[in-house]
Amino acid sequence: MGIGILGGTFNPIHFGHLRAAEEVREEFNLQKIIFVPSAQPPHKNLKNIIPSNYRKEMVEIAIKGNPFFEVSAIEINREGNSYTIDTICDIKKNYKEDIFLISGVDTFKEFSTWRSVEELVKSCHFIVTSRPGRDLESLVSVLSNTVTKRFPSIVFSYEGVKGRSSVFNISSSSYKMFSMEITGLDLSATAIRENISKGKSIRYLTPAEVEEYIKENNLYK
């Protein structure tokens, strides 16, 4: 059994995040999934990102009652920019199990721009999730034209299908990349924030307790 890591701004967390985490945990028989809210994500505009303490508390509220989910403040407590490689290395110090980094397909297509790519592919497995209808096969093409172009020693090659996932080997690494279609919940934190700013309902987009927390703290106004 491995440990899943799901990072993000969670600005705010919604049912799309939660359902993806649940399906991945079940498919890969993970011991647990650790949600890691980011502090200062280097790839994102900070303009619309609320303080990390609010985002962390919303994650805690959303996952309450699920014994397989927990939240870590490892990036929030780290000073400066948050980089995935630092988080993975720190988490590996506390676990002997394999680490599975969970990422959406659009985010992972930017993998070549991440910090310490060559070290990262030798540190953990990767689970890339996508909604039905998204072309996961194009992911390898994109990675070949970006990651392999910058780092010739890193090549992704198709191995086969295992359960709901396509499996890819990563050259120069003992770890693998898995691509997996998840339930197509067409939700986004951006749309939720826009609804709030316009005075529209966000009911059934995020847990009711999270919705109440947002109202009580007058967030995203």
UniProtKB/TrEMBL annotation:
Which GO BP terms sit in this record? NAD+ biosynthetic process
What catalytic reaction does the record list? Answer: nicotinate beta-D-ribonucleotide + ATP + H(+) = deamido-NAD(+) + diphosphate
The UniProt record lists the keyword NAD? yes
**Is the Cytoplasm keyword given for this protein?**
no
Q: Which GO terms describe its molecular function?
A: ATP binding; nicotinate-nucleotide adenylyltransferase activity
Q: Part of which pathway?
A: Cofactor biosynthesis; NAD(+) biosynthesis; deamido-NAD(+) from nicotinate D-ribonucleotide: step 1/1
Q: Report the protein's function.
A: Catalyzes the reversible adenylation of nicotinate mononucleotide (NaMN) to nicotinic acid adenine dinucleotide (NaAD).
Q: Which Pfam families match?
A: CTP_transf_like
Provide this UniProt record's keywords sorted from A to Z: ATP-binding, NAD, Nucleotide-binding, Nucleotidyltransferase, Pyridine nucleotide biosynthesis, Transferase
Task: Please give the Gene3D superfamilies that the UniProt record associates with this protein.
Answer: HUPs (3.40.50.620)
Listed EC numbers? 2.7.7.18
Name it. Answer: Probable nicotinate-nucleotide adenylyltransferase
Name the family. Belongs to the NadD family.
Q: Report the superkingdom from the record.
A: Bacteria
Q: Can you give the residue ranges of the Cytidyltransferase-like domain?
A: 5-194
